[in-house]
Amino acid sequence: MTTLVLAAHGSRDPRFDVTSRRVADAVRIALPDVRVELAYLDLTAPLLTDVLGELSGDVVVVPLLFGDGFHSKVDLPALLDDAVVANPALRVRQTPVVGRYSPVPALADRLSEAGLGDRDGVLMLAVGSSDTTSDASVIERGHELSGVLGRPVCTLFATRLGRDGAAVRDAVDALLRAGAERIAVSPLFLSAGLLTDRVERYLDALDVPMVVAGPVAEHPCLVGAVTRLHAAAAAAVRTVA
Known about the structure:
By secondary structure, the chain is an alpha/beta fold. It is about 50% helix and about 20% strand.
C-alpha cells in the first residue's frame, strides 16, 4: 500500500498549519485505508525531508499548490531526489499540483458563504510565479470563475502588488468601472495568511465596500482533487510493480 504525503508550502502564519491539518484530516476521512501524512516545503514543521526520512516503500506526494511553477517543477523534485538518496528504501512519485483540477467550485461556494451580492465585483487573489505558464493557468481560473458567477472577476497576484499597493488600486478601479458596487475578495489560497492580510490592509485603506470570502481550505473540491491524484499515482505504481 502506498503512503500519501500532502506537501504544503508552509508559512510563518500559524493559521496555515491549522488549516493544512484540517485538509489532511478531511483527506484521511475520504481515504480511510490510506496512510496520510502532512509535510511542508519550508517554514513550518514537519518539513518534507524529515517526513520522508521516516517512511519506506511506495510514497505518493501530492503538492497542495494551485499554481504549477517553481515549487512544483524545481523545488519539490529536488527535495524528493535528495530524500531518495538519503533513504534508499523510498520509492517516491510526485503527482501534479491540486490546481490541475479546477478549484472554481470551491471559490464560488466560499463567495456564496460570505454573502456574495448581485452587484459585487470579484477580486480573485492568487500567488504569482516566475513561471508564465503557471500565471496563465491562474488567470484562466479567474475567467472560469467569471463565467460561473456571470460577473467581472479581476485576478490579482498577491506577491506582486506594486509600490504602495498600486496593483490593488488598479484592480478595484477596474471592477468599479465595470459597475461593481462592492468588492468581493476571493482567495485562491489554501489558507488565510500574511499575503491575504496584506491585500486586505490595502483594501481597507481604499475605504471601499468589501466582503472577504474564506480560502479554499478543506473544501470537498480540494479533497476530491487529492483523492483523484492519489488514485492515478497509486495505479501507476501498481502497474510498474
